[in-house]
Structure prediction request, 462 residues.
Amino acid sequence: MTDLSVIAGSRRLRRGGVIGGSTSGEAAVNGERNKRRVVSCPEEDRISKLPEQLIDSILELLPIEDSVRTSIISESWRYRWTTMGALVFDKHFSNKFANNGAFGRNGFIRIINQVLFLHKGPILKFHLHIPNISLDSFQEVDQWMSFLSRNGVTELLLTNLNQRYELPSYVFSCLELTKLKLVNCFFKTPLKFEGCLNLEELCLQDVDFGTSLCGNKINLPQLKKLILLTCKNVYNFNIKATKLCVLTIVACRDTILLRLLDSSCLFVAGLALRKPIQDFVRGEKINLATMLSKLPRVEYLFIDNYFLKSLVAEKIPKFLPRAISSLKRLWLFDYQLGDMDQLHVALCFLRNSLNLEKLSVTHSEMESRVDVGPASNHLESPNCLDCMLTRLQTVKIECLQGSKPELLFIKLLLAHSPSLQNFTITPSENTDAQKRFDIAKDVMQFRRASPKAKMIYLNPET
Prediction:
């Protein structure tokens, strides 16, 4: 029995039992019933008459082991799975075979080697989840990448839970790639590599760009979505992506942000450090006005307080040189309105976002040493927000602590939003029942500029 027989089942099962027909003993005892089975079986095998493309689509939706098991249906199905355009060795697959080691009888790597050996035709989609198993090297993974580069792969997802994997040059010769996702890899392009002309989506997580990319600009003319999560040496990642529409950068130190914002098509941007600024060494000096000037078409902006703190090198202006007229959705994450810098930035966004429709604020726990007096005094001043938020319809406040600046900010929003429809408040899990009741009682007494404003108060457990 081969290793793949563990997935597909034994050959004896192909020839006997319900699928292959009945034995003579069964026919003697249940003749009439078996006769009906023999006659009806071909009529019921309707799936084999489906168009080839539809059958392939069905097989690709199944887990890889179930696709291989279809080889026991009949002789005509024996090698049907070998022409699938998508091979997905995901977390479910790796968890099932990782316990067998890498090269054992039914080992993780040995099974994949056999699947690729039997496969025929192009592989358009390849997903690989490398579990944390004992590997002396990634030689076999390199061979798989070489195999894919010759088979027209357009979608490659590689999640590595082992030691960091250095991408071989074969990956960068997959010129048909439209989607690439890498987790825990070294990203080192060949010296003469100029770019991926067809790549539309790029997601890099825990990727180290090293030092060899400095000065090499990667041309990605079709790139529309870029996600960078907890990557290292990002200042060496230099790209030209003039069609970039969606950009997310989370916990990537020393990012040269202005390089990545060099696209007039950007309409979604998510920027977060997730750690205090002293834990990072930024590779550029940039302020809030400069950053927003590079986002003339942004409609949805997600930004955390740590990233904003890195932009507050100068005094925050009341009005920017150019209004953010395209911005419709704003999410301020890990915010502390008792901090004057963060409060000024929030108010600056509100004054300059003339078409803002939805605002989300997720609070972080206020540090006990922070003096909230100045922030409270500023929020109570008459000209704190000297404009109306005429387009604002939806507000969502989460992790509310119930501090005075937080409540005054809610009061400010209610008084300046004549088109408001829904205002949702979710207190922090750290607040007790009495505190939540007090928050709700205070909020319900605030004046509302919109007669249609509906207040929604949620428990944090829901």
Notes: DSSP finds 17 helices and 18 strands in the chain. The CA atoms of residues 285 and 311 lie 8 Å apart. The first strand starts at residue 86 and ends at 89.
